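Late entry, 3-methyl-2-oxobutanoic acid complex.
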Amino acid sequence: MHKSVQDIINMKKEKKKISVITSYDYSLASLCDKAGIDVLLVGDSAGMVMLGYENTLNVSMEQMCMFTEAVSRARKNSLLVSDLPFMSYQASIEDAINNSGRLIKAGADAVKLEGGSIMAETIRAIVDIGIPVMGHIGFQPQTTTLSQGYKVQGKTKDTAMKLIEDAKELEDAGVFSIALEMVSHEVAEIISQTVSVPIIGIGSGVGCDGQVLVIQDLLGMYEKIKPKFAKRYMNLSEDIIKSLEDYKNDVISGKFPAEEHWFSMEEEELKKLREQIGG
Ligand SMILES: Nc1nc(=O)c2c([nH]1)NC[C@@H]1CN(c3ccc(C(=O)N[C@@H](CCC(=O)O)C(=O)O)cc3)CN21
Ligand SMILES: CC(C)C(=O)C(=O)O
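Prediction complete; structure with ligand written out below:
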């Protein structure tokens, strides 16, 4: 049986750090699951790293469902959380419930949505029908149009207070966890110590209860943005390009394919064939 929402909540109580990584496809999700990552997040960052959009706003419910289905076929042990994409939950609670249901039917165990106190009522409604919700405060990529860019949140006393209040309101609304994006580490630590549900940080310092990274950033295979917080554990882009250049050169030179890569027919059959075609 894979990890449950309760298992993740318990990890905070047991002071165990929670590892979260984004996943969008079967092959990489299988490896994340095998590596023992606690939570696979089908993030709407898929729009950028998988589909090539400038930001996350264009991602559709259909696309999120497809990514979720692929990841759900791969996961055996991790919890699976999927993002509600832009405009799938903001306009009405009815939208929020219907679209949360679609992600659950696609294989998610829980949904994530962006917003603080303004989303409390929506979150309560989703939780009430039995769908676990992860909140997401601090920097909220779905509102970049308004906030004008990628900026660290909670750098002043007042904005920090608002973040702490938002976290408390989300907890009251029933979230099982909160993603905290690009918040000054001091405020992130205070929030983690203030609420009882796990705080999953991204660019928010080591005081959080867990961490999340976009897998392409961790592997070093997405070159368009390089956030300061995104530690690279590999430079896969370089390795992939080198392999492809080697492949191309092998094709040109005839070094690939070699005998171990091809199939043969029986000598006798080949002889008969040659006779028939007069070779
Ligand atoms: N590949 C990828 N990684 C992510 O972490 C990520 C996405 N995509 N898409 C959705 C959001 C957008 N995120 C982003 C995108 C850019 C920056 C960035 O450019 N940060 C700069 C400036 C920060 C500042 O204001 O000082 C940095 O240096 O970190 C940060 C987070 C995080 N998420
Ligand atoms: C960066 C994480 C938290 C996210 O929301 C995403 O990948 O879409």
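The pocket of 3-methyl-2-oxobutanoic acid (ligand 2) is lined by residues 22, 43-45, 83, 136, 179, 181, 202, 212, 214 (CB under 6 Å). Will revisit in the morning.
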